[in-house]
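Researcher: Please predict.
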Amino acid sequence: MKICLVTEYFYPEDGGGTPTVLSQLMRYLKDHYADLEIDVLTSNNLYRRAGGKLAAYEDWDGVQITRVNVPRSNQPSTARRLLAGCVFAGAGLVRLFNSRQYDALLVGTNPPAAPMIGQWLSKRFDIPYAYLVHDLYPDIAVAMGALGAESRIARVAHQWQRGWLHDARRVYVLGRCMADHLVQAYALPAERIDVLPSWADADAVPVLPRESRFRARHGLTGFLVLYGGNLGHSQGLGGVLDAAKLTAATHPNVTYVLVGKGEAQEALAARVDTEGLTNVRLFPAVPPAEYPDLLATADVALVSLDPKLAGLAVPSKFYSLLASGRPIVGMVAPDSEIARVLTEFDCGIRVAEGNAQALADAALRLHDTPALAAAMGTRARQALEGHFTLAAIAERYYACLTALAER
């Protein structure tokens, strides 16, 4: 079986997110399924680093990578991002114009115009394509206010998205909330959707003692509530600072630690300074190799996503939190995939995003009942090992791709 993955960023990208996840998946599939041939069409850019271009062709231990020379899609405006994505799609179509040899295509949502390649090749050569939805546009841009719902760009993009979804033979999503959204917003039949969640490497993210190098390096003591990731506006991290204010007087040994970078970073730092939040510490992002040690620092791990993005995205870092064996507080919508996993495996507490009192209460409940916190952490690790390892998810991908090719 020969497949082609189409995605904008790929190996050697190792900065996390979709590029790293897809690189891990293709590597595992190639190494464990002898009948599988894998080509990858991607760009010659790196996601996390500007400047420098990767080689046009590379044989990555049997994974054949073809890179097209296109501008990066992370442009400063929505219109320019869409244009850059269309350039990638056009260049990809030119490169794959005579690609009759594939049994199936796997097309991601990065850039948003990438499924144009699958749609065109499917119609021209009757090659079935699966549409792998990680981030759904224009829905995300509309939800976050970057695009007006009735703007011309949003309406055209919605029509394109509907066509790509309905022309795909199968649609793969990261969570049940995303499947629900596609059924409701795009009238996509539920029976054509497969839920294939993300994962974490149980060996790469072991359960480590809380006396981490990160704690020692920064002189951190006491009970730590840790958030590590993007410090963006869609994470609602202002609520973490509000919760810290509520617990400062009664529980001075509880510290809220935010690690990362993003567009909300300066505003958060300014609030910490002006409001004298001595129980909040801000640190820059750590290198990927140090991430497991960072997670070990936590007594409680935080994950958050703006409720407006429920059904549109599932943060992949959630699965690393499961792997770390820490109880999780999720500041997420009640019908989100994260909320469902926390409830199903009883490995954490969901609170409404922006509800500082609920967040403070959850943190103090785990602080005051260490047996409950330990049990939730154990169940989090068990959930990861039983359901969300790379091996388990890759097996499901292989079965789905095999069925797709056979049709």
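Model: The chain has 15 helices and 14 strands.
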